[in-house]
Amino acid sequence: QHCALELTQNCLVAVSYCALLQFEPVGTLHNLESPLSDIQSIRGLAVDWVSRNLYWISSEFDETQINVARLDGSLKTSIIHGIDKPQCLAAHPVRGKLYWTDGNTINMANMDGSNSKILFQNQKEPVGLSIDYVENKLYWISSGNGTINRCNLDGGNLEVIESMKEELTKATALTIM
């Protein structure tokens, strides 16, 4: 099983053992949604702190998709279907954009799932998708070739930040501070 954490205004949201959990500041644990027994895999958690929505990637009924629900678990719906090999998901609520990896591609769509497009192909096992909200940059690790990459949020100005082939061969996450 995959585990993911996302910190948003005064709460921590976690994916663990096919359940979405929300931790309030006082330490109270809530099931964000009833147990998700029909979902085979949950990963790629992202929080829209502006609209108070939660996004995640799941596999249900032999299809992988990106889903959205309110932070209280209501209004669950699938917004992007037919994803092949997703690993990571990131949200930029102020700009209204979602970003995700699918196989060797970096993808982008509006937060309602519309206007989906591939930003980059042939990224060799991209992982660790992360957004620099101050500089408005998207970062990821191409673990297959040992590079950290970044671009503008629209996909322009692709840069290779650092080549660290030996150190990044097993990288799984990246965060921007």
UniProtKB/TrEMBL annotation:
PROSITE patterns: LDLRB (PS51120). It comes from the Eukaryota. InterPro entries: 6-blade_b-propeller_TolB-like (IPR011042), Cueball_EGF_LRP_Nidogen (IPR050778), LDLR_classB_rpt (IPR000033). Gene3D superfamilies: TolB, C-terminal domain. PANTHER family: LDL RECEPTOR RELATED PROTEIN 1-RELATED, VITELLOGENIN RECEPTOR-LIKE PROTEIN-RELATED-RELATED. The gene is LOC109378503. GO terms for cellular component: plasma membrane. This is Low-density lipoprotein receptor-related protein 1B-like. LDL-receptor class B repeats lie at residues 96-135. It comes from Hipposideros armiger. GO terms for biological process: canonical Wnt signaling pathway. GO terms for molecular function: Wnt receptor activity; Wnt-protein binding.
